[in-house]
Design brief:
It contains five helices and seven strands. The chain is of the alpha/beta class. Strands 1, 2, 3, 4, 5, 6 and 7 form a seven-stranded mixed beta sheet that branches. The longest helix is centred in the first third of the chain and has 24 residues. The protein is elongated and about 65 Å long. It starts with a helix and ends with a helix.
């Protein structure tokens, strides 16, 4: 009877570990930070810091067509927020830098049993994609805002990153412009 109960505990632990890994696969992690000394409400125009997306790190090559799709999607996201794109950096209220990357990773989980020799190690390979959007003030050229998102990417999103990139841009820019906290508003 004790062995059956122990086996049930190991199976339950394995199912919990598997469901936890599966849940993590599709939930993006989004963070942002900003310098509260900037008046984000005064921003109306933007431009790019660089002519193309910066490939930060990773195990995947990002071709020029995919880079252009990402730039176009990010530009559209800012325009949908009411900002106007300008070619000349001296006319921009803020300057945007896009950085992307994808890297293969391995998760190792141990599900222990009731004794020191009973348990199982589970490994899973996955690819984590990342997006960072940095905004620099057009006047003093200093960093004003930073947003980032990371997410596990299935192969279909690596092959066609457009839809997942658009989603990531939307999630990151949901925090831009930043809203003052109650302490900052006083």
């Amino acid at each position: 009877m004790q062995k059956i109960v122990n086996l049930k505990m190991v199976i339950a632990g394995a199912l919990l570990a598997t469901s936890t890994l599966t849940a993590c696969e599709t939930t993006p992690k989004v963070r942002s930070d900003f310098d509260s000394s900037y008046d984000f409400a005064s921003y109306e125009t933007f431009t790019w810091a660089f002519e193309r997306v910066i490939l930060v790190s990773g195990d995947y090559i990002l071709g020029s067509v995919k880079r252009q799709v990402m730039i176009d999607q990010a530009k559209l996201a800012f325009e949908e927020k009411g900002y106007r794109f300008v070619d000349n950096a001296s006319e921009a209220d803020f300057v945007v830098s896009l950085s992307v990357g994808a890297q293969d990773k391995i998760d190792v989980d141990y599900v222990g049993g009731p004794g020191p020799w009973i348990g199982r190690t589970y490994t899973s390979r996955y690819t984590e994609g990342g997006l960072a959007i940095d905004i620099f003030d057009g006047g003093d050229k200093r960093a004003a805002w930073h947003g980032q998102s990371t997410k596990r990417l299935p192969q279909k999103e690596l092959d066609n990153p457009g839809p997942s990139f658009k989603e990531a841009v939307s999630l990151v820019l949901a925090n831009f412009p930043p809203q003052p906290t109650p302490l900052e508003a006083n």
